[in-house]
């Protein structure tokens, strides 16, 4: 398993390189640039600015310098649009924010979604099952840009319980609404997925064997059924978790949390090449690591997978 | 004194198409240590009878009748009381060893949890018992194999583990539901020999459910033939094979391919199994029976007789 992890990490390096090259050229293909404005800069000024950011060199040299700086000094370059701030600064400021509310959002998804799914499956075709399934479908189709304003309307404007935005160093009152708004539809997805797969597992022959042993239902659920029933949920949660901890543009804009989702949107508008590239690399690395963790979790659950590692 | 007494057992399933009458007023007894075969084609209800004894029928099943075991009706027991019977007093061997074992759990754990539950053994004692059980079913190197997962065993070895699970508490009755159907012919013979050895060693009663008459011939004292959820004939196995007294049993035995048969054709019973969506009002085999007379299509024959019991309106002498 250790060898497998090392192998996977090694294959990550060329993948990230390819991603950098692609993203780099793709961005340059987009019309405009970081210093394009309505009133064009005088040519002499423009020349100076370009020189200051190393953009007077040929493209492949810029790319080479960029990669070299990352590899040798972990330096993702200066921001093109925000004066005197480096990409490292921007990420160091924004990423902890998205990581925090993203993490709590994922906790909310799992802690609520899995038990709801289990209850619905155990009470199959009962009132609680229909209620849960109905609620889940409802919240799954309920977009966060409707849910977030609704929550602000209720919890902030009507009842004054929670602040309607901001971050304030990550106090819990500021995390609750972004985390719930971000997670609700995924929570519903997890609940439905858990319900479906647990129902399937509970109907499988090896559960019948367990019943034939005289085991009480609770033991059967915990010891025999839960692990296999959570496999699809695990698959589902992988990409969702990456999406959550890298932040949502909508959440950052609506709640003014100041996460990297906001930086991504700003970077795209102002053609801030280095910020966009830096964020793309973060997404890539996170996707890689989470997938690795997921695969190891699979192996932990399923002995057949373990043998094939 | 019988160990298990099934009386007037009827099993119906409510489905989208209507009510399926899977088992229709079946009665039989099993004596301690007796080896009984329950023979029938697929859909005859034989597996459902075993599942009803274990209380493992699907949720849409309705059961009536009585299943008496040690003076108690298993059909009326509470879940907790039934759990104390399962595996401890009556154990079941399932048909497909590929799916009957939990693929996510070491086989040792799947064995130890039974004795931990029913005999209150600690981890170490339970493990010792599990190894003994695996050795009893002749799994080589049981000491090390106990920590393997099901997928690391062959089909035959997995079925041995399923058998080990059934016998680990030394139950008085084992229900073996097609224990060899999913296995190679050579492995089938090994498994049946193993069952036979274990049976005589523990003097456990066995209800062998099968469609394979060859398996029955070598193993069971007594055979019961089921058709359309109705008992057609029960007789000592020797008599049943030597002189089948029911037209359906005769058709079944004639359908077993014989290598000395010059023509080399397969002699199937013409027609198809009965529509079980209608309640039984007459002999379910009448439509396919070569000896059927008008009365067979209007009257439901009762199972009568001494050593050999048959449910047929026509006297044995009149059969073709």
From TrEMBL, chain A:
Main location: membrane
GO terms of biological process kind: transmembrane transport
GO cellular component: plasma membrane
Keywords assigned: Cell membrane, Membrane, Transmembrane, Transmembrane helix, Transport
Membrane topology, as annotated: Multi-pass membrane protein
Start and end residues of each ABC transmembrane type-1 domain: 95-294
TM region positions: 9-27, 101-122, 134-160, 172-191, 233-255, 275-301
Gene3D superfamilies (UniProt xref): MetI-like (1.10.3720.10)
Highest taxon of the lineage: Bacteria
InterPro entries linked to this entry: BPD_transp_1_N, MetI-like, MetI-like_sf
Subcellular location: Cell membrane
Pfam family, one: BPD_transp_1
Family: Belongs to the binding-protein-dependent transport system permease family.
Annotated protein name in UniProt: Oligopeptide transport system permease protein OppB
Species of provenance: Pseudoruegeria aquimaris
Gene: oppB
UniProtKB/TrEMBL annotation, chain B:
InterPro entries: AAA+_ATPase, ABC_Ni/Peptide_Import, ABC_transporter-like_ATP-bd, ABC_transporter-like_CS, Oligopep_ABC_C, P-loop_NTPase
One GO cellular component, as annotated: plasma membrane
PROSITE patterns given in the database record: ABC_TRANSPORTER_1, ABC_TRANSPORTER_2
Keywords from the named record: ATP-binding, Cell membrane, Membrane, Nucleotide-binding, Transport
Keyword Cell membrane among record annotations: yes
GO molecular function, one term: ATP hydrolysis activity
GO process annotations (BP): peptide transport; transmembrane transport
Pfam families found in the cross-reference section: ABC_tran (PF00005), oligo_HPY (PF08352)
Membrane topology: Peripheral membrane protein
Subcellular location: Cell inner membrane
Residue intervals of the ABC transporter domain: 4-253
UniProt similarity note: Belongs to the ABC transporter superfamily.
Protein name: Oligopeptide transport ATP-binding protein OppD
Gene that this sequence comes from: oppD_2
């Amino acid at each position: 398993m250790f060898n497998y992890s090392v192998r996977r990490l090694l294959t990550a390096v060329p993948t990230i390189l390819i991603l950098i090259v692609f993203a780099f050229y793709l961005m340059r293909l987009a019309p405009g640039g970081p210093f394009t404005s309505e009133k064009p800069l005088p040519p002499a000024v423009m020349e100076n600015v370009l020189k200051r950011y190393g953009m007077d060199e040929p493209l492949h040299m810029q790319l080479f310098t960029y990669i070299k700086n990352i590899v040798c000094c972990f330096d993702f370059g200066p921001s093109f649009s925000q004066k005197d701030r480096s990409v490292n600064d921007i990420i160091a400021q924004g990423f902890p924010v998205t990581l925090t509310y993203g993490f709590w959002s994922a906790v909310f998804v799992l802690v609520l979604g899995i038990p709801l799914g289990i209850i619905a499956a155990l009470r199959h075709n009962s009132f609680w099952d229909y209620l849960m399934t109905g609620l889940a479908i409802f919240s799954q189709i309920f977009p966060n840009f409707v849910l977030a304003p609704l929550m602000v309307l209720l919890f902030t404007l009507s009842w004054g319980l929670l602040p309607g935005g901001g971050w304030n160093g990550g106090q819990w009152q500021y995390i609750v609404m972004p985390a719930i708004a971000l997670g609700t539809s995924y929570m519903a997805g997890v609940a439905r997925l858990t319900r479906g797969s647990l129902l399937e597992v509970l109907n499988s022959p090896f559960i019948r064997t367990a019943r034939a042993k005289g085991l009480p239902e609770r033991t059967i659920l915990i010891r025999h059924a839960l692990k296999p029933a959570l496999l699809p949920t695990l698959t589902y949660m992988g990409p969702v978790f990456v999406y959550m901890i890298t932040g949502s543009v909508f959440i950052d804009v609506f709640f003014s949390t100041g996460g990297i989702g906001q930086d991504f949107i700003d970077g795209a508008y102002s053609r801030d090449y280095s910020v966009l590239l830096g964020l793309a690399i973060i997404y890539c690395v996170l996707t890689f690591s989470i997938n690795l963790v997921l695969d190891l979790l699979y192996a932990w659950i399923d002995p057949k997978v373990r043998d094939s590692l | 004194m019988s160990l298990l007494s099934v009386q007037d057992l009827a099993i119906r399933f409510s489905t989208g198409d209507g009510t399926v009458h899977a088992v229709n007023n079946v009665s039989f007894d099993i004596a301690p240590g007796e080896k009984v075969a329950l023979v029938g084609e697929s859909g005859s209800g034989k597996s459902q009878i075993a599942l009803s004894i274990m209380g493992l029928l699907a949720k849409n099943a309705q059961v009536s009748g009585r299943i008496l075991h040690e003076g108690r009706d298993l059909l009326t027991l509470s879940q907790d009381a039934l759990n104390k019977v399962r595996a401890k007093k009556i154990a079941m061997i399932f048909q497909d060893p590929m799916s009957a074992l939990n693929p996510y759990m070491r086989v040792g754990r799947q064995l130890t949890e039974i004795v931990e539950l029913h005999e209150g053994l600690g981890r170490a004692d339970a493990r010792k018992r599990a190894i003994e059980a695996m050795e009893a079913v002749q799994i080589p190197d049981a000491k090390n194999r106990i920590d393997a997962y099901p997928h690391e065993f062959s089909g035959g070895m997995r079925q041995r583990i399923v058998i080990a699970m059934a016998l680990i508490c030394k139950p008085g009755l084992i229900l073996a539901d097609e224990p060899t159907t999913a296995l190679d012919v050579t492995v089938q013979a090994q498994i049946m020999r193993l069952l036979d050895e274990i049976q005589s060693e523990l003097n456990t009663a066995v209800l062998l459910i099968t469609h394979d008459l060859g398996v029955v011939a070598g193993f069971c004292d007594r055979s019961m033939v089921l058709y359309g959820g109705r008992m057609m004939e029960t007789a000592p196995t020797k008599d049943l094979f030597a002189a089948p007294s029911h037209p359906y049993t005769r058709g079944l035995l004639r359908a077993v391919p014989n290598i000395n048969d010059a023509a080399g054709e397969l002699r199937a019973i013409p027609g198809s199994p009965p529509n079980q969506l209608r309640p039984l009002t007459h002999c379910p085999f009448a439509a396919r029976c070569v000896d059927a007379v008008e009365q067979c299509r209007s009257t439901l024959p009762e199972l009568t007789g001494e050593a050999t019991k048959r449910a047929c309106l026509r006297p044995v002498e009149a059969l073709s």
